[in-house]
Amino acid sequence: MDPLNLMRELAIDADTKIVILLLDGLGGLPLEPGGPTELEAAYTPYLDALAKGAVCGMSTPIAAGITPGSGPGHLALFGYDPLRFEIGRGVLEALGIGFDLQPQDIAARGNFCSLDPASGVITDRRAGRIPTEVGARLCEKLRAIDLPGVETFVEPVKEYRFVLVLRGEGLADGLTETDPQQTGVPPLPVEPTRPEAAETAALLNRWLAAARQTLADEHPANGCNLRGIARDPGLPRMPDIYRLRCGAIATYPMYRGVARLAGMDVLPTGETLEDELDTLRSHWAAYDFFFFHVKKTDSAGEDGDFARKVAVIEHVDRLLPRILALGPDVVIVTGDHSTPARWRAHSWHELPVLLWARTVRPDGVTAFGERPCMAGGLGHIHHVDLMPLAMAYAGRLAKFGA
After folding, report:
1. Residues 6 or more apart in contact with residue 306 via CB below 8 angstroms
2. pLDDT of residue 86
3. 159 and 131 in contact (C-beta within 8 Å)?
4. In angstroms, rounded to a whole number, what is the distance separating the alpha carbons of residues 246 and 291?
5. Over pLDDT 70: what percentage of the chain?
6. What homologous superfamily does CATH list for 3-85+234-393?
7. Is 331 helix (H, G, I), strand (E, B) or coil?
8. In sequence order, what are the beta bridge partners of 23?
9. What is the pTM of this model?
């Protein structure tokens, strides 16, 4: 039986609450051989105390050796097999800003970048993380680009990110990205991965050429790349699968998008962790399941800032008692992927995971970190295992079979 159908068949109502505390890019690596990871270097007395009463382990978001994008890492955490449900990041960004995405639309996540005017090579993939208001002004300029036979929408997201949506007849997905994921080389063209996408690829390349002309006099954002070019796949919804009232708390649009795609209510919140905590508290009575997203661990990792990533983890730790004071029945702490500051990028490394519940069998782990969790009672699992475990520990799964 399909795992989601099994959950749908066994899910029952109960007066219990589940919190997934997701530290984006949580997993790390030591800067020096034998040294601590970012999580191990952080002073986390409350996470360590929670680990002592929990069962811990290591979890693989996708499959062994596979480096996950943020979308697949989150979908796996919510119980969707990421190898079956492939979601383009453009869809997540569009939904994350509340764009009215239609079933046949093609959506792309756009990144403003810096190009060397003489050679055309990328010198900064994020254009110095330009302010959101600058990105919005550039989007206004890009809206003047017309394509034959289709409507185009260009919407700002945050900082250097934007969304490009094409709407019209005959559009097809199956398209490559233009970001080469490194500096010192030019952007790539959009290529079709199946014949029926050739015309859509040509339209996107035409738009990109016009965009580079439009941005030529800008600094530092004189170019752009497109990533995650796709259409909405129409996922089964979490409330229907798990019989949960699901609320999502996230500051970045992409993560609000993946939550909305999965059928969660995206709860309005501010920019800080304290704002997110206030949102959790004010909506506590209305929901059974909360996805609480922390972005800045990942940002620090991508910037190669080990100390800042440690500081974000310590900030989360200081707020943990206020989350626990609300009385959750199940708490899971993990990440969607590893982003070691040493690498400045996502990696395939397993993630530490902590599962606390009122009915858990503590495993003897006394600190929350990669090496302690390797010896934990959960062993080595996959992210798709976590929602069934959360449901079971919350008393929300019926017995299977006679």
Report:
1. 28, 31, 38, 41, 300, 341, 342
2. 82
3. yes
4. 8
5. 100
6. Alkaline Phosphatase, subunit A (3.40.720.10)
7. strand
8. 294
9. 0.84
Question: Where does 277-346 show beta strands of DSSP type E?
Answer: 289-294, 330-334
Phi and psi (nearest 5°) for 307? -65, -40
Residues 6 or more apart in contact with residue 139 via CB below 8 angstroms: 154, 155, 156, 162
Do the beta carbons of residue 57 and residue 377 sit within 8 Å?
A: yes
Packing angle, helices 89-96 and 253-261, rounded to 10? 100
Give the SS3 label for residue 319: helix
pLDDT of residue 93: 87
Query: Is residue 360 pLDDT above 90, yes or no?
Result: yes
> What are the backbone dihedrals phi and psi of residue 346, each rounded to the nearest 5 degrees, phi first?
-60, 155
Q: Confirm if 154 and 167 have CB atoms less than 8 A apart.
A: no
**Does residue 257 contact residue 95 with C-beta atoms inside 8 Å?**
yes
| DSSP 3-state of 22 | strand
- 39-79: per-residue pLDDT in tens? 999 999 999 999 999 999 999 999 999 999 888 999 999 99
In 3-state terms the chain splits into helix, strand, coil percentages (rounded to 5) of 35, 20, 45
57 has which bridge partners? 353, 379
Strand partners, 11: 397
The pair of structure tokens assigned to 297 is 């661990």
E-only strand ranges, 134-208:
151-158, 161-167
Distance CA 215, CA 142 (A): 8
**CA 2 vs CA 77, 116, 240, 325: distances in Å:** 17, 50, 15, 37
Sequence spans of domains, the chain: 3-85+234-393, 93-230
Q: d(Cα 308, Cα 299) in Å, to the nearest integer?
A: 9
- Would you say residue 168 has pLDDT above 90? yes
In tens, the pLDDT along 233-271 reads: 888 999 999 999 999 999 988 899 899 989 999 999 999
Please state, in angstroms and rounded to a whole number, the distance separating the CA atoms of residues 150 and 90: 18
